[in-house]
Design a protein that fits this description.
The complex is a heterodimer of chains A (162) and B (79). Chain A has 162 residues and is of the alpha+beta class. Helices cover 24% and strands 38% of the residues of chain A. Chain A contains three helices and seven strands; from the N terminus they run E-H-E-E-H-E-E-E-E-H. Classes of the chains: A alpha+beta (162), B mainly alpha (79).
Chain lengths: 162, 79
């Protein structure tokens, strides 16, 4: 939406929106957020990260699952910044079209652009693309549920069809 | 076969790994993919395909392939 105010979140602001915490919270800050539309997550990887000594000792790079998690943590900020969903727990439902084209090494800053395609009855669909210094690094499509919103429907399904 | 029937079958075949000949007797939880999450994927496909937004009671009423047609008729969609 043209003219929508863009919001910025530091680490405390991120923690108010989503329930991930150290050592699983990977975002440093989230900027240019238009709730229910888009968000940009920023993560600076230093050698102090817990995984670099193990992946790999002689050639440290960010494991793929952490890139996926960093992208989806940015994606969920597109809707967890909406007042009615702030602080909700989320579940992964689906991931598709994962693409990884660049190693991320100590010193790299990953910039993740996420877009929300739809949010219906607590099920969010969208995508994220990530870059290092404007060079494409990775991308994926996501389907994520907001547990508080989907639990009621799933409970009703169980009652009707068990 | 009506255009709506084609669309209806397509939604099921996109949501679940099933062939056209398997659709008629297909029921909720008959296959691992048609669980509660799969059900919501099916509902999303039906809503997108037919341009509707279903009520929660209607969503949970879709217990099998045939019942889904009856539910869609509540939205004036004839399969």
């Amino acid at each position: 939406m043209t003219g929508s105010p863009k919001l910025n979140f530091d680490i405390n602001g991120i923690k108010e929106c989503q329930r991930n915490r150290h050592p699983i919270l990977f975002l440093d800050k989230v900027v240019d957020v238009v709730p229910e539309q888009r968000a940009t997550g920023i993560k600076a990887f230093s050698y102090n990260e817990w995984f670099f000594p193990a992946h790999y000792e002689d050639e440290p790079s960010v494991p793929g699952f952490i890139l996926v998690e960093t992208m989806v943590q940015t994606f969920i900020m597109t809707f967890l910044t909406m007042p009615e969903h702030k602080g909700s727990k989320t579940n992964f439902l689906n991931i598709g079209n994962g693409s990884f084209r660049r190693q991320i090494i100590p010193g790299d800053t990953l910039v993740v652009n996420a877009e929300l395609a739809s949010l219906k009855r607590g099920i969010a669909r969208g995508k994220a693309d990530a870059y290092v210094e404007d060079e494409f690094a990775c991308s994926a499509d996501f389907v994520v549920s907001i547990r508080s919103a989907t639990d009621a429907i799933f409970q009703k399904m169980r009652e009707k069809h068990s | 076969m009506s255009e709506n029937n084609e669309k209806y079958q397509k939604c099921f075949m996109e949501a679940f790994p099933v062939q056209k000949q398997d659709l008629e007797g297909l029921k909720y939880q008959d296959i691992p993919e048609w669980d509660s999450i799969g059900h919501m994927n099916l509902v999303a496909a039906l809503e997108d395909e037919f341009g509707i937004e279903m009520e929660i009671d209607d969503i949970t009423d879709i217990s099998d392939f045939r019942k889904g047609k009856e539910v869609l008729s509540r939205y004036e969609i004839s399969i």
